[in-house]
Design a protein that fits this description.
Chain lengths: 837, 466
Amino acid sequence: MQRVSIRRWPSCVVVAWLVGAIVLSSAHAWAYSPNAAISGSWFDPAKDGQGFTLQVINDQTVLATWFTFDTQGQQAWLQGLGEIVGSTVVFDSLAQYTGPTFGAGYDPTDRQSTPVGRLVLTFDSCHQAQAVFEAKAPFVDESLSLQRLTELNAHRCDTASAPETFPLHHGLSGAWYAPDLDGQGWMVEVLNAEAALVYWFTYDSEGNQRWLLGVGEVDERAIRITRLDIATGGRFGPEFDADTIERARWGTLTLRLWPCQGASVTYSEGPAHLAKSNQIQGVEPLVAINGTESCPPEITKYSAARLLDQATFGPTPEAEAAVMRMGPEAWVDQQLATPPSHLDLSDMHCMENFEPEARAARGVNEQYWDAMPIRMFDLFIDAPDQLRLRMTWGLSQLLVVSRDASDIQEIGTGVYFNMLQDHAFGNFRDLIRAVTLSPTMGQFLDNAGSFATSEDCPECLPNENYARELLMLFTLGVHQLNMDGTVRTDASGEPLQVFEQADVMALARALSGWHIPPLDETDPRFDDCDHPFIWYDHPMVPHTGYPRDAHDPGEKTLLGTRIPEGQGIWADLESVLDILMAHPNMPPFVSYRLIQHFTTSDPSPAYVERVAQVFADNGQGVRGDLKAVVRAILLDPEARVGDTPQSHLKNFGRIRDLVLRRTAVYRALGCPSLPTQMFFLDEDDPNYGVRFLPRLPNNRPFGAPEVFNFYPPTNQVPGTDLVSPEHMLLNFNGLEAMLNALGGDARQYRQCTDYPLFEEALSRDGPALIKLMKDRFMRGRQTFSHEQVMLNTYEMGLRDWYWNNQNSSDPEAKHYLYQFSMFFGYTLLGEEFGVIR
Amino acid sequence: MSHKKDLTSLTRRRLLAGMGGLLASSGLAVPWPVRLAMANTYPDYKAVICIFLNGGNDGNDMLIPRDGAYGDYASAHGSLALPLDELVPLNLSNSDHLLGLNPAMAPMRHLVDRGHVAWVANAGPLVEPISADDVKNGRARLPSLLGSHPDQTRHVSGGVPGTFAANSGWGGRTLEAMPNDLVDGLLSNLSLSRNNWLMRGRYWAPTMAEDREYFTNLDLRHILDGGNPMEFQAYQEAVGAANSGDDLSMAYRHAVGNVLDEVLELRRVLDRVPSNVAPALNDRDDFELDQRLRTTVRTLWAGREAGVKRQMAYIQWGGFDTHSDQRGATSENQDGQLADLAKALADLDEQLTIGGLHDHVVTVVLSEFGRPLQPNSSGGTDHGWGNHFLVTGGPVNGNRLIGRMPELILGGKDDMDEAGQGRWVPTINTDQMSASVMSWFGLPHTSLNDVFVNLENFPEPTLDLF
């Protein structure tokens, strides 16, 4: 992308050079009828350093802002609405606004308006106009011979030349303001696919007028101006002298304007290294240029629900409304800023706390072995940090620990979950350090107690288990990758490997000597139980005592880089992190897997590369910024292009895993937590009631059969080249879980806020029920492939069943919602729900 | 791509056969193939069972020298070394060494004594015959990604990156190469495990015969029995008609559509198997491997009765990635699992005899790699390469060692490891072993190189196992 900068503004020639060739027409023999194409910036080359922005609002009306100076040499911006009359635009009254003070104390009610004069613009052509200003004191009369400075991308004078293709931004040009901070605003001119000119008209700390401007880079949904300038030294009227105008950097400005509603503006004043960032929320379009939509593309229920399918545990009406109000970008940013929720582990350190008597005494109704995933589901369903939790569900499948494939305790998976939550939007380096030192991981892959060969222990050999998986599963993979995730090959077409056995051994040595911390007998929980599992709370520590020298002090060579001898266990860890982070495989490897988790199982190389670039550098020179990576994944054009039905790219999407199937149902029904289906181990004793975890064959969180997760990330659908890991869930056990959408006994759903809506529809008519299902589970789409048969199922079975049982005196019959559960299951079996795309 | 069309036609054929028949007959079950009635002799029936020991079984602790080499083993293997006097003696007719078996495997002793087990020494995935010196000198062409579980599993299963075999295995490809009248779309390619690369053909996906997780308050059987045609129609229409040329759409619809079809058909098949086939034998019937082998035997029996001539079944089992606690008798230790394996193989032998299948079935026990002889500091071992395997069954010419035991010396002539931890360079390609079994199964010699990628680099493509 061409980096746009202006050496000196308002030297309009420079701006003109930047924004592309200006064709100056010398032909003005006949009158020109102003239309939307006059929108843009205009200036008089003889009085360079001031200028106008014009915005044609409709067939009759033009908004003009004159960025200039007053007769005392202070900045001024004069604004008014004009009417198109023939070849002229007449502004009966331009006004100067003053009063509000810049920054936190801004109060729109301070604003005062002073009329300054009448302006008439007469257009010779789309490129030339004459300005005549009849002033009121203290301003003075002025005449200017205007030329075109900028044309808007969507409104070129030459209508034959089609606008460059970037449909998201066609409607961004125009005036923007924040209703809560009325009286100031931003004039946005999108010039082409890469650049936009922005004016900010506002006030200084004294309430005097101030205007700032800059040319910014346009990326998909934001305009980023790294150099926002302020001009001084001009004087209105005959004394105006372009040579006295000074231009200085004021700060930075970022406008996140897509999708318009709920947009935000971020700015910082002063030198970059000192600047504190401020944000103005709730920015909205004030006027749009005639003939364009102010909010392209429209945020529909479909597109909002689609983003929620990709980024959360399922859409809800409230979440859809939030996305529609804020727009995808602002919503994602808000989610990225939401602090982590955590599992409550306070009662998990004693297994015996979950003996029935102990459970009852503590009011806990979960069996010990199910408590962690049950509580995870509670968070998945209702916690506000949906995107973060979704990231954690993804990370738990990348940086796998499993209580089913080892003897780690339940609390170990809980601590690990909370750790992932804390690091989900941090830096990948910190995450990998935390994983490496996690006692849960240390136990799972044997790096706890992996000791080097030493004098005390000549037979010791570092354990290679963690070292190998750290390289091949967690950070780099096995094949060398291009930035776009494709495999690099040698001259004969063989894939190049990332590492060799020698690297595994070197890494195992560099990571030798760690140990799970000794039990802290001063911990208040120590005496709570016979076998307290309290060591999981603390990262692993260097082993001390016998055998001595458990950490290998020697020199190691890892992936071609030397780790010097004798630098110690902590420095070795940092050296390892240095080497892993610097490796060219990491950005595409990690990006690919995260893309697979959020949006599509088989992403295009271009998509992978765009995300990997962000992993490699978040724009501020930081590598491994997961927040930026997640943002890039979700807001990538390839992810968003399917925001209207049927418009997704071929083969785009991912099969909805069983956890997401379950949570989508719970969330759509408005369940406040995992519905408590009580299973009475002893009917006579309510203390024996326990909460159920739904069946999740081969998909239970932290229950993978091995460190390779539930399914290999490279799994291809048999007989095709299509990558689809979740396809491996589509076996009989998976199908059973899918069909049994509500559980056999759906009474539990009465705890869910919106369940009555479903039962009401059930009691009323089939189309109402089908419509509700489409609204809640299929993004409100018009129809689905087996809609008619589901309607028949209702008419010919479910309706009678409901009415027959509704009046039954047998509560079991009345509430036994097996038939309804089946109806849900079959409705949600189709690809409209089963494949997120 | 033409093979996608094949996938479509195959899966659709099954789907429609199962569902269409049901609907057409107004909810009556599809009659079980008439072949059932006519089949009673089985001169040309053959089946292969593959048991894949998940995680890399340490062959060093399966076959152990009882002669002078025991000292090499014991000194290199340190605290993990099994005591000499506890080894189960093997009387092999053609071995350079006196060998013994891990004592945990004693339960299969009678199987060994009856001559039904052949041992394959130091095999592993290979591109071409090589020595440890070749590896150390960088002269050897090596299989990619040695030491990686999933990648070596793929290699042993016949999936070789960058070749036609990238996304399939030798079992599936062999079945695809068989004449159509010998194999059956439902009953010839059976998998009792989700990870089943070995059984994936280029377009033929295995039938998932595993049902041990089956429990239900959603009794799918009433669909099978025609209990609710409406549900069946909903199911069919939800996943039946792919309405786009989109692979993901097709993949979802076909997979979901086939699952019930397959399970119901298979269930119908198994319901017809008399209870005295693969009966409960002993207190081990609850064990996962035994259960899966019983399901296997019942499925083989049913296939044979139906006139199917060739069947393969695949089971991936266990957790042999013993980076720690290799010794011990629980299901997390190698010994405990080898004991389970040995008992299961002995029970399988008995079940096959009861079912009249004994002389028709060969079982091969595989794993992705061996482990270095030198233990790590956790009482376990890491990832190696060459490994020992066993092939068992009535047709097997047993009590023999195929190949040569590695020299059990750290840094010795078979050790590829610069650090000398005892990672053996295989002297036999696992594909040679697999190709031998597939040759017995009926894969024509001329098709061997079509199924096994690097076999042409080996002067003797098959081993003397039968």
